[in-house]
Amino acid sequence: MRTMIEFPDFEEKLKKGELNNSYIFCGVDEGLMQDNIKSLVNKNVDKTFRELNYVQFDGSTVDMDAVINTCETIPIMSDKKVILVYRAKFLGEGEDREDNKRFDKLIKYIENVPNFCILIVYYVFENDREKPSNKVKKLDKKTTVVRFDKLKGAALEKRVKSLFEKRGVEIGKIELKLFCDGLENNMNIISNEMDKLCSYTLDRGITKEDIIAMLPPKSDNDIFDLVDCISQKKPERALEILNELIFKGEKATYILFMIERQFNILFNLKLGVESGKNKDMLSKELKLNPYICEKMIAQSKRFSAKQLTNALEFCLNTEETLKSSSVSGKTEMELLIINTITA
């Protein structure tokens, strides 16, 4: 009796060349599935003849007889061929008649895939709570089922770092954490944002400012309000906003970098105003919308230069502390707010 495996186990087998003739992939992260399929195809199908020996079928409308016939046809100028049925919704719990027919044909054939062929059928869960269907469990007794759950924490950072390295781009530990924390945990989204960031920075190293500039905007108004509460010495409301951000799913690291960015802009605005620069000059120099620049100039007047310097120092100290996985991000952010208000 076969047992469902997790995708890191599959990746290890792929590295060693220990492959079977058929697989069912299932889980929430389609990007991870596609990455592994790409690696499998690169390893087993010659680039020159890829169009002939790598065939894809849309799982929502697939004719399983066509899939079986393609599997039975010998590869051309290659030892192996790969057949992919993607987004195979017929592996879900639905009772659609046509989907059930597709499933019946697949389960009867899957143990008979020829040695020269690798058949992959993948099914994407609708959400994190979805479990493998009874159909997938039945297939688990006949072939290898690989589960693709979302990467988290250090495992996600390791994967993303390796993808940056493949692109020939350097990224530091802090910048890597900021990038991962600032995005939805989905490899397709992460890969797209990575491409944009690499294009933006070209051949130089990636900075925190680059990441903040390029990531999709999140909770800017909340960060402004949080810093405003600090300026008005309202710790209760500042902590409420912090808790709201965390409840929305924002990571402590991301909130910290946004606060640090806000204080940095306020510091530069304060110095600029004191040196005689006006709103138009500062908005151009700091690349701020004129309306936002005006609001932030008003906010900067509630701080002294020393308070802003202290606030930035507290942010850097908190950043160092958050490098440790043993600390509570929420607690450290609360301490940052209290320390900044009382300093």
From TrEMBL:
Record domain DNA polymerase III delta subunit-like C-terminal: where: 221-339
Annotated ranges, domain DNA polymerase III delta N-terminal: 23-148
EC category name: transferase
Tree of life domain: Bacteria
Keywords: DNA replication, DNA-directed DNA polymerase, Nucleotidyltransferase, Transferase
EC annotation from Swiss-Prot or TrEMBL: 2.7.7.7
Key word Isomerase present: no
SUPFAM superfamilies associated with the record: P-loop containing nucleoside triphosphate hydrolases, post-AAA+ oligomerization domain-like
Reaction(s) this enzyme catalyzes, per UniProt: DNA(n) + a 2'-deoxyribonucleoside 5'-triphosphate = DNA(n+1) + diphosphate
NCBIfam families per the UniProt record, alphabetical: holA (TIGR01128)
Family stated for the protein in its record: Belongs to the DNA polymerase HolA subunit family.
Protein name per Swiss-Prot or TrEMBL: DNA polymerase III subunit delta
Gene: holA
